[in-house]
Amino acid sequence: MAAFTLTNASHILRGTGLRCSTQRRTLSLWSTALLNSTQRAACPKLSENVLRRTLPTLVQSRPISTPSKILQFVKTDVWGATHRSGYGRVPPPPRRRSLFSAARDFIDSLPSGLFTWGILALNGVVLLAWAYANDLARYQRDHVWLKWMYDNFLVSMHNVKEGRIWTVLTCCFSHQEPMHFTINAFTYYFMAPVVIAIVGNASFLALYLGGGIMSSCLSLLFGQQIRHKDVPSHGASGAIYAVLSFFACVAPTAQLAIFGIVPCPAWVVVGGLFLYDGWLSIQGGSVRTDNAGHVGGMLAGVGYYVLKRMGMRL
Fold it and tell me: Name one GO biological process term (predicted).
């Protein structure tokens, strides 16, 4: 997986339909202050003498009732005096928030850095667990811990058939090689804070985890239908590709730096990766890269963007 960094993000929220609530509050306060200042400028303070001269002119004599006025009085005042209105009724009880809404609001209230660094830390812990298991197997001939890691942090058709369904998610936090972890962490570090600022903590978690699950499922499907063999897979590339493709949909002209050096528009980067990984997936995939998983992550990011544009609160 290539590493990407974000070079400019000042115009991302302009012109998009995905605006955070803090902008709306700022706009509301600004418009209220502008209205108050306009009213003060247009209505200067009146002196007491001016008020005394103008107040009598505000009292006007009651016009002579006409048939139309009488009919209006019968329809409004008499009807209101002889029939009950809604005044005094007990208002309906407020609707209870669902558990999902309460959990979402709680997650969004937490600091965003908790999720940026928390996911990185979780990936780092699993990396250390792989290193410990490999050392036990290599130097002490103890394969128990290594087998447990294979059973719980690699996604494969064998693990799924054995009932370990959770591996479609846990594999998204799993890296055996430090270089694999470093490249994924590099891209995640630059992309995650920007996407969290756009959609919030809860939506970002749904995007990351959903992208990882979609990546695992498509990897299993291609392994059975194209490769015709069960190849275990792991890594956060699919989930990170979901974040990257979602960002490219929100800000397609934003500049991304490939490996932190070569600037390129986001839509070109994601489009090129989709064609590259899609072609290799159809051809059977490379030996060390799960190209089908990359395609699944990008499709998940685009699909999540479409659902957000449709107004779904995910």
Answer: signal peptide processing
